[in-house]
Structure formats: C-alpha cells, structure tokens
Amino acid sequence: MMESPAEIAVTGRNVDVSDHYRSHIADKLAHLEHFNQRIVRFDVELNHEQNPRQSKASRRVVITARGKGTAVRAEACGADAHAALDAAVSRLESQLRRSHDRHQVHHYRHQRPTSAPVRA
C-alpha cells in the first residue's frame, strides 16, 4: 500500500520564497519519509536576519516534521538559503535515523540461526 506523500508548508519571514526553491525543498524532504512513514506534514520556515553583523548566519531554516507521535524539529543558519537548508535537512535526517533505529526489533541478534548445523 503506497501512502500519500507528506504535505510541505513553506513560510518565509522577511524573505520571498520562489517556486524553484519550494521544489528544491520538496526534493530534499522527499527521502526523509523513508525513516518515518507516519510523517504527515513538514513545516519549513525561512527567516532572513536584516542585521549586517549577522551576515554569516543571515539565513535561518527551521524544519518541523509532524505526524503520529512526537514532532521532530531541526534548525540551521547559513550565509545563503541553500546551505542553511542542507544543514537543517542533515540534522533532521540524523534525528529521524536515530528514532528509526530505536524502534527496530533487535531481539533476534544473539540467537543461533535455525538452518545452521549444530557442532558438538
């Protein structure tokens, strides 16, 4: 059964978000659904800091993954929007990967396989 892809809501604070950048965000977030099939919505917030002293971290991206269970949130800053998005996606991916690994069943790890011959 193929589930529908998660909804992606992109909001910009002090910045205009182009259609090309929205499709770039959708491409980046598409592979994250592999780790958690129960994600229903991604909220992506883009923020631009107007202060010239903050030029190295002027773009901030906050991604919140919502669904059944707890919400997972990651944020990152960068000099441009693409670098900040890449950093936020990698942080979110590591959190989802850890959560996915925690839910794996590992109780079979120390058992001997049934097809292996028993040596005396």
TrEMBL record:
InterPro entries: HPF/YfiA_ribosome-assoc (IPR050574), RHF-like (IPR036567), RHF/RaiA (IPR003489). Coiled coil: none annotated. Pfam families: Ribosomal_S30AE (PF02482). Residues 97-112 have a biased composition (Basic residues). Keywords: Translation regulation. It comes from the Bacteria. Residues 94-120 are annotated as: Disordered. PANTHER family: 30S RIBOSOMAL PROTEIN. NCBIfam families: yfiA. This is Ribosome-associated translation inhibitor RaiA. It comes from Pseudonocardia xinjiangensis. The gene is raiA.
